[in-house]
Every structure is written in C-alpha cells, then in structure tokens.
Amino acid sequence: MKNNPNYFYYMTINEAQDQIIEEFSAFDDWMDKYQLLIDLGNELPPLDEKYKTAQNLIEGCQSRVWLQADEVDGKIIFQADSDALIVKGIISLLVSILSGHTAEEILENDLYFIDKIGLREHLSPTRSNGLLAMVKQMRLYALAYKTRKGK
C-alpha cells in the first residue's frame, strides 16, 4: 500500500478497493497473496496499548482483533491490531479502505474487493467468519456515529 497508512485517505472507498484489487491481481499464487497480507499487516501502525481492551475486541474472530474508531472532522478514523499475522493483514485492508470516510460513505459502499481478490474463498471458515465480524463491527461504529450526529 505504498508503505503509507494514509495512502488511501484521498481516495474514495471504491478507488481504494480498485487499488487493492490491482495489487492482488499481480499474484497468481495464493501463497504470494497470503505473503502480501502478512506484509500489509506488518505495515499497520501499532495500536496504542490503551485501546487493547475487552471493549475493543471484535467478537466472532478466532484471533484477537482490536478495533478503535474515532470521529475526526466528520470522518471515522479506524485503528486496529491483531495477534495473528494474516488476520492483521485483513484488518489492515479494511482500515485502509474505510478509515477517513464519513459514516454515510462507510454504510453505503459495498466491499466488493473481498470477493474480487478471492479472499473469502481462500480463508478458513473461522477466518471468513472473523472477516465478516470485522466488517460488521466497522459498520456498527459508522452507524453509531451517524445516529449520534442525527440527534
């Protein structure tokens, strides 16, 4: 991801997804794609220990995944971490696509990159469930911020 966690901040969600699809399409072998996921996870900035709380743990993941969401100037900024390398890469993808966008944008966009790069079909059932849990939690944060703004 161009070694910059803010690389996608200036793109729409769909432009970011298209960029990821392009990066993954450079590899035919899924071992290479797993390595890319691991590399992306390693590029994810470390999550401050104060956010590694039970409240920030995503339920439904076999590995431990922490997700912190903050609203800054009307945009949701996600930070995350995991204790599993591939899972950390997956949450890194989600953070890079969704972070820096409004709640409405997050709720209205379909995350088509998951199927386009073949991620869901190449994950174990438990990791696939974890991926869905991560997406669900990010959308719940967006919904909470949208609801709060509406009051």
Major β-sheet, in short?
2 strands, antiparallel
The spatial strand order of the largest sheet comes to 1-2
- Helicity, as a percent range: 40-55%
**Classification by helices and strands:** mainly alpha
Total strand count, please? 2
What integer value in Å does the Rg equal?
15 Å
The percentage of residues in β strands lies in: 5-15%
Shape: globular
N to C succession of SSEs: HHEEHHHH
How many angstroms does the end-to-end distance come to?
37 Å
Low-confidence stretches: 1-5
The mean pLDDT is: 90
Figure out the total of helices.
6
Q: What does this protein structure show overall?
A:
By secondary structure, the chain is mainly alpha-helical. The chain has six helices and two strands; from the N terminus they run ααββαααα. The chain has helices spanning 13-25, 30-43, 85-98, 103-108, 113-116, 125-150; strands spanning 65-72, 75-82. It has a two-stranded antiparallel ribbon with strand order 1-2. Helix 2 packs across helix 3 (85-98). The protein starts with 12 loop residues before the first helix and ends with a helix.
